[in-house]
Design a protein that fits this description.
Strand content: under 5%
Number of strands: 0
Structural class: mainly alpha
Order of helices and strands: HHHHHH
Largest sheet: none
Number of domains: 1
């Protein structure tokens, strides 16, 4: 059961983050990208839950937690890229290696953020007790489904970073091509009157 919860938590986390970034940038969410992110997050969460075991991140050593998040991120990033390739009609293996590497790094980054929150949140709550009701607190002996979702590992896959980088590179390439066309057009416009003037001069010589 904890594997399914891990997959669900990973999918929800990735989908919410993707939609949130789109809204922050003033863009409508691209539901294809949201779906891909959810798929990658589900795989990442499943692998993370499988490698951490029933005890989850709370019961794991730092080394085991880091390895789990790195493996989850790598698997999620690879799965996300394969699915994107299939949808876009590209070779399934295209870019999978780089997506796997980015996913591993993103998973480690997510692990670092998770461990940081574990230390920061209690300190903040100690200074501002009113915030205690907004934090989950200690896990009960029989946690609810929502609490198990909250505690499930959610390694990042980095898929959104990769897509944003590709889109930026494509946009810059289009800008360079447009600038090159504008320069060629300007050169042709300057060459036209010059050629016409030379023709008139030659005609006058005869």
């Amino acid at each position: 059961m904890h594997l399914l919860i891990g997959a669900l938590a990973g999918a929800l986390f990735a989908a919410v983050v993707t939609v949130g970034f789109s809204l922050l940038q003033g863009r409508k969410p691209d539901w294809k990208q949201v779906g891909l992110a959810a798929l990658g997050g589900a795989v990442a969460g499943f692998v993370g839950a499988a490698t951490l075991g029933v005890g989850g991140l709370a019961a794991a050593t730092t080394t085991r937690g880091a390895m789990s998040f790195a493996l989850g991120g790598a698997a999620g990033g690879a799965s996300e890229r394969v699915a994107e390739n299939a949808i876009d009609g590209r070779a399934l293996h295209e870019g999978v290696g780089s997506a796997t590497a980015v996913g591993a790094v993103a998973g480690l980054a997510t692990f670092g953020v998770s461990k940081g929150f574990e230390r920061i949140v209690p300190a903040v709550v100690a200074k501002v007790p009113a915030l205690a009701r907004f934090t989950p607190g200690e896990a009960p002996a029989s946690p609810s489904f929502i609490r198990r979702l909250w505690d499930a590992p959610t390694p990042g896959t980095g898929g959104g970073w990769v897509r944003a980088w590709r889109e930026r590179m494509a946009h810059q390439r289009e800008l360079r091509e447009e600038q090159a066309r504008q320069r060629e057009l300007a050169a042709a416009q300057q060459e036209g009157p010059r050629s016409f003037g030379m023709a008139r001069a030659l005609a006058g010589a005869y």
